[in-house]
Structures are given as C-alpha cells and as structure tokens.
Amino acid sequence: MADDEAASVFKALADPTRRQILHDLRDGELAAGEIASRFPIKGPSVSRHLAILKAAGLVDERRDANKIMYSLVEDRLALCVGEFLSTVCPEQVVLRRRRTTRTRKATS
Amino acid sequence: MADDEAASVFKALADPTRRQILHDLRDGELAAGEIASRFPIKGPSVSRHLAILKAAGLVDERRDANKIMYSLVEDRLALCVGEFLSTVCPEQVVLRRRRTTRTRKATS
DNA sequence: TCGCTAGATAGCTATATGGCTAAATAGCGG
DNA sequence: CCGCTATTTAGCCATATAGCTATCTAGCGA
Q1: For nucleic chain D, which protein residues have CB less than 7 Å from any of its atoms?
Q2: The predicted structure's pLDDT at residue A107
Q3: H helices of B1-108, where?
C-alpha cells in the first residue's frame, strides 16, 4: 500500500456522500442511477464521486446493458484504512481477511 | 459517534501531514515545535493542522511551561474509523478496546 | 519590567473541491 | 438509423483548503 494510495483513499473518504455510497454498496452492486437517486445532488455530481471512489480503487464498475453497475472492491477499504490504523494504534485493530474468495492463505 | 464527528475525523485524515502527525504521536506526546521540525512547512501551517486534529478530537494539548505538548486521544481514532468500517465491511474489522487507561508515556 | 522563546492567530493567495447545467457517449429497441 | 435511457464529460462558479508572512499572546528568566 503505497503512500499515495493511502492518500487517494483517505481523500475519497473525506466526503460524506462518498462514505454513504460505500455504505450503500455494502449489500451488493448498484447502478449509477440507483445510487444517484438516493442523494439530493444531481447525477453528474454523483458520477464524479463514483469516479473518485473508483480512482481510489474502492469500487469497481461493470457495464450491464445500458447501465453501469458499481460494486465494492473487496478488502480494499479495510486493507488501506487498516494499514494506516496499524501504524497509529496497532493494538486496537485487528484485520480479518475475507474468506468468501478462494484465495488460499497460509495455513494460518 | 455522530455523523458530523465522523466527518471531522475523516476530513482531518484526508491530509497526509495530519496523518503523519498522528503517526509521530504514537510514541508519546510531542511539543508543537518538535512536530513542526519534522515537516518542510512553516510553523503556522503545522499549528493549524494541530488545531484541526484537536477539533476532530484526535489529539489533546497540554501546556508545559512555555511549550504546548500534543498527544493522541486514546481510542478516538480507532473508534471513529472503526465504526465507519463496521458499517461497510464489518466482517473484516475487529476492534479491540484498550485494556487500561494508562497513558502511554516514555517507558524509557 | 524587558527580552527571549514557543506557538497561535490574522489575513492573504493559489489551488482543490463539489455543486450545477449543457452537451457528448454508449447501448438498446424499433 | 432513430429516438430513448443511462451515465459520463466539459465547463463554470462558489467555497474550502493549505501554504505563506506578519503579528499577537503566553510563559520564562534576568
């Protein structure tokens, strides 16, 4: 996790709309328009928030017909933020890797 | 943890200088000048960063003679950030509360 | 009290951010 | 291809941010 990666992630997290978008994506992917409809701001503004989240590597996009579906990039948020937390208050945070993916990790 | 509390914390974390300050404070309190001397920017700029961190509740200040000592507010960072993480990827983060309220100061 | 040191505050400037509207692009159905 | 829907991109504007210098405040020691 390079330092400028952390930078883009924390910049992305600085905006409440973007934090809410991440939260909304927790239950699964959503189309850009579905996301936009949950906020009082206009589509283009939401679109830019999504672009910022994507640039930070926090979300992925996928085209589905004429919609663009956004989804969380698994682990990315926890790893970036967790790495930072571990440099400031390591005794307080424990990161757990997801098991839903088949990524085999060491025999513990 | 009110939402605007999270807002001030994440805003504070958005700046790399402020993240570094938090990191530097990990080993114990530091005078404003000691902190400033670690950065290429001028004193007043650092002073404002410290004020922002303090407003976010992430650091505390204490006067010692003619110096002002800054220190981490224990738990605050982990609790704020951890609460947010738990709303996005709860299965990945485990928060461990500190066991003692002792202030970590130079043990040597 | 005076002068020194440590920091904070005031005020300025350039850049970044986040909102908007209008226009461009992408895919779909006829 | 045309028109429609979905979304991004382009530009514009107001506000926020982060840096700077100059100045003010607080506490110390002679």
Answers
A1: A 31-34, 36, 43-44, 46-48, 50-51, 61, 66-68; B 11, 14-15, 17, 40-45, 48-49, 52, 63, 65-66
A2: 42
A3: 3-13, 16-24, 32-36, 43-55, 76-88
